[in-house]
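Support reply, case 0932

Customer input (verbatim):
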Amino acid sequence: MIKIAFDIDGVVLRSIEVILGHINRSTGKSLRPDDLLAWDLEPLGLTVDTLRDSVNHMYDQNFIEPYDGAEVVLSEIHEYTKAPLLFITGRHDPSTARKQLESLNWPAGIPEMIVTGGDRDKRLYLNETGANFIIEDDELHLRDYLATGVGVGLMVQPWNRNCQAPVTCRFDRWHDIRDWYLEGVCGRNS
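Our regenerated output:
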């Protein structure tokens, strides 16, 4: 059986919008997600302090807007599997992500969840949790996951649109994940 892990920032939460909004207010720039060619923001010519302050600002938020359909699809997966949802984040402190996930408008109440992580390379956490599939937007370690036998679903975003990694599947929106998981992987008809 497939045990799926979900990245959080750029997959569930619109974290980049919060980061770029803070950068724009701090610097007078007008950066948008469509301006990004990679998840790394250093090529934008920003100072380390500006980047750190903007990321910390994002971590401090109680609520970050989710991508359309995220809560509904995750709730359906939770209901189908009767298992905790597994989230693996690259944040050094996963508790900031848990707080933001718990603040979402879950259709049937906050689902049971496991939130772990602390590094952009999630192989250790995938191994520790027994996850054999991850939905990710950061292309940095996709080939590493695939090399260890972990399937990869790429949530297509502006910053990974040119990703050349031979991922297992590509998703443009949460409804695509729903169709793939509930109808394809699990064989359940809607």
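We compared this against your earlier run and they match. Two observations from our side: The radius of gyration is 16 Å. Residues 120 and 140 are 8 Å apart (CA to CA). Please reopen the case if you see a mismatch on your end.
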